[in-house]
Amino acid sequence: MNNSISTSSVLTASLLFSSLAMANQPWSQDRQWLFGDWNGERTQLEQQGYKFTAALMNQSADGLDGGYKDNNGFETTSQLTLGANFDLEKIADWQDTTAAVMITKREGKSLTNENIKDPRASQLGNVQEVYGRGEIWRLTQAWVKKGFNDNQLQLKVGRMGMSDDFNASQCEFQNLLLCGGQLGKSISSIWYNWPVSVWGVNLKYQFAPEWTLGVGVYEVNPDNIKTASNSDGFNLDMNNVEGATIPVELIWKPKLALFNALPGEYKIGALYSTADASDVGVAGKTHDGKHSVWFNAQQQLTQQGADAKRGLYVSFNAVINDKDTTAVSSTQQLSFWYKGPFDSRPNDSVGFGLANYVVNDRVTDRQIATNNSRGYVDYDAFAADYVPVQDDELNVELNYSYQWSPAVLLRPNLQYVYQPAGVKAVKDAWVAGLTMRINF
């Protein structure tokens, strides 16, 4: 068993056993936090404007068949999150003002990197979305948000992830591309998802009851994604800023008669980065920027009885990237989940999703040309200087989310990866996964 597995197991076990000593009935199905309400102190603090969070997410993946090594490997990865939100209107009488601080720590290994993909190929998907950006402590959030005109206009400033406010999407899955914002999966050099934070500012204007327009400016700074030490996770300087990423997004939240007036959310957005970007097809060529566009849609399709939260939901996400500078030219995601499938389990859900990476054909052509220049015509599984030729990768997941209580979630899942890392010669992979989330 590797060190990451044992560390996660010890941490989880110690926290669980500690909770038994600290509180009565820690496994109650209506328990909000595993450590309880601190004899009422937690609720009282929230009423005064102080909300504290602590959570552990662990994701395990077992290779059932296929992949580059085809040896049924097992890996686990985890993330610890510690945070606080402050209602500054209650605390300091600053009207419509909130603030947040969040620190995260990730550890473990990825089954995709260790067993599923050809190690010579660049990564596309991942069967464990909580993996990545280094096994270090990170300052993930440190921002202040101020509302004006009854919060019709909101200004947010500080350290934040870009998908906190733009290209945001639901996360009901363990697979990376089926979880959360899509841009960080294909343009990760300029767009930073959780747990990375950057200096940024954004403005959201609700100009009609159903319509909101947002614009932001975020630094492009490679120092923010360094992983050599914990100090890299708390980098606050702007010494090596290379430019700015500027997203614009229009959000529509209707209740359409077509869907029985159930809530929906539709977003269309675009970004431009001013940082220099290398051409993916021509060595040594650079461009003075890059761009992407996206469309996100989430719609509740049905409602189960009188419970507004139970029913069938659908989500569709699509990203189109600049073909001159981006290896992944586009991504598409379609997912469904049903909340409250059984009357006895109103908080559980069943999920099914498909997600696809489309590799830029200019990248594929360059890989083929490189291999031809080295004398390779067919796939070579062993040559160190062979460059795996990449095409599309498809990810599929079926899961069941067992919500024992608001404090404890278990999500067993089955995943299928078609053409891992887009390499046709690598066997398609089947993976059994398990996500565990505990709110302390």
TrEMBL record:
<dbReference type="GO" id="GO:0008643">
    <property type="term" value="P:carbohydrate transport"/>
</dbReference>
<protein>
    <submittedName>
        <fullName>Carbohydrate porin</fullName>
    </submittedName>
</protein>
<dbReference type="GO" id="GO:0015288">
    <property type="term" value="F:porin activity"/>
</dbReference>
<dbReference type="InterPro" id="IPR007049">
    <property type="entry name" value="Carb-sel_porin_OprB"/>
</dbReference>
<dbReference type="Pfam" id="PF04966">
    <property type="entry name" value="OprB"/>
</dbReference>
<comment type="similarity">
    <text>Belongs to the OprB family.</text>
</comment>
<dbReference type="InterPro" id="IPR038673">
    <property type="entry name" value="OprB_sf"/>
</dbReference>
<feature type="signal peptide">
    <location>
        <begin position="1"/>
        <end position="23"/>
    </location>
</feature>
<keyword id="KW-0732">Signal</keyword>
<dbReference type="InterPro" id="IPR052932">
    <property type="entry name" value="OprB_Porin"/>
</dbReference>
<dbReference type="GO" id="GO:0016020">
    <property type="term" value="C:membrane"/>
</dbReference>
